Amino acid sequence: MSLRNQVLIWIAFFVVLILILWLFRGILLPFVVGAALAYLLNPLVNHLQKLHLGRGWATALVLFCFVAIILGLFFMLVPLVVQQVGGLIQRLPGYTADLQSLARRWAPELNEWLGPERAAQLEATITDMLGRLVGIVGVITGEVVASSMTLISAIGFIIFTPVVTFYLLLDWEGMERGLQGLLPRQYKDEINGILRDIDSSMAGVIRGQGGVVLILAAFYATSLTLAGLNFGLAIGLIGGLFSFVPFVGFALGFVLSMGIAIVQFWPNWWMVVLIFSIYMVGQFIEGNILYPKLVGSSININPVWLMFALLAFGALFGFVGLLLAVPLAAIGGVLVRFAVAKYKASSLYRGPDGDAGGDASAV
Question: Concatenated DSSP letters for 295-354?
């Protein structure tokens, strides 16, 4: 089979896959979450198997412990988080008005320091930014309410997700053997190399970046709550959980925290500096400790493409698309890098004589 035909077949395969996902997007959530959990928990099941525990018992034990932890956190945190998020949404317009009032109170000093024109521009910019922030929060809230699951779908999600996870974990080894049996023998080693790269990238996405998100959410929520910031738990969780979108989680949490801190603690600037320091410490921990240790270079996706993938898949598939965007972007990155490597090794790039020296010398 020619290279052209192979490329066309793979393109057709991915087009059909995207079409199937779009057609069944309404029922995909339990299967997507179940597959992600199975991938996440499979190393623990494998470890228990090495301790001479059967696959079925190991799967049941790991899944039972995981569900117990999730239920415990749910009953402890969810009522408080829901209460704080609701209070934050109701109070946000009031905080915006208070910030505008403080800005008008500081107007004489700003006029003296910056000049009338620049001070007016700064006040207009702050007002516009706060208005946009309130609008964004309102849109997000509306989308969540509009896309919220009905009681039947919520019950279906709660029931089907553990079942999907259990059977995927139980038959994980069989699925791997079945996949290996379907690989064309001529390209088996090459495809396995791609699959290893995809596994490394997926580990960075699901295990590594997932760990970073959870740790940041816990750090911001705990730190802001201990600092006494109003709605600190909700803001910390929002900023931490949205940190899988580059810059968005930090910007959202930082703007909300600083705005509320200025209104709540003014004129005690030390408390405002404390809230500011919490976010600076969080960014230092994320950039210098968590991300290099837990994720490393396994994802290797440009943040611009990552944001594009989130917006595109979110528009196509809704909430399920947001869950699929980063893993599919990571897989796409692996495939693109492989395609570029094949292109550079081909006669199309190196020339009919297989000599790339001219290109190298030009560089």
Answer: ITTSS---HHHHHHHHHHHHHHHTHHHHHHHHHHHHHHHHHHHHHHHHHHHSHHHHTTTT
pLDDT at 151: 52
Which among 265, 227, 230 is positioned nearest to 99, based on CA atoms? 265
Task: Go through 149-187 and write b for each residue having 16 or more CB atoms within 10 A of its CB, e for each that does not.
Answer: eeeeeeeeeeebbbebbbebbbebeeeeeeeeeeeeeee
C-alpha 110: how far from chain center: 40
* Residues 351 and 336: beta-carbon distance below 8 Å: no
Which residues, at least 6 apart from 211, have a Cβ–Cβ distance to it below 8 Å? 290, 294
Model pTM?
0.66
What is the rounded distance in angstroms from the CA atom of residue 281 to the CA atom of residue 286? 9
**Contact call for residues 164 and 31 (beta carbons, < 8 A):** yes
Angle at 268 between CA 267 and CA 271, to 5 degrees: 135
> CA 116 to CA 109: how far, in whole Å?
10
pLDDT at 235 over 60: yes
The closest alpha carbon to 46, from 61, 36, 59, belongs to 59
Radius of gyration from C-alpha coordinates of the chain:
25
- Rounded CA separation 298/38 (Å): 20
Q: CB neighbours (10 Å) of residue 258?
A: 16
Higher pLDDT among residues 230 and 319, named by residue: 230
Instruction: Count the helix, strand and coil residues of the chain and give each as a percent rounded to the nearest 5.
Output: 90, 0, 10
CB 232 within 8 A of CB 85: no
Query: Do 18 and 25 meet the contact criterion of CB atoms below 8 Å apart?
Result: no
d(CA 207, CA 62): 16
- The span from the CA of 99 to the CA of 95, in Å, is 6
Give the residue from 171, 341, 307, 137 showing the smallest Cα distance to 239. Answer: 137
**232 exposed, middle or buried (CB, 10 Å; 0-12, 13-18, 19+)?**
buried
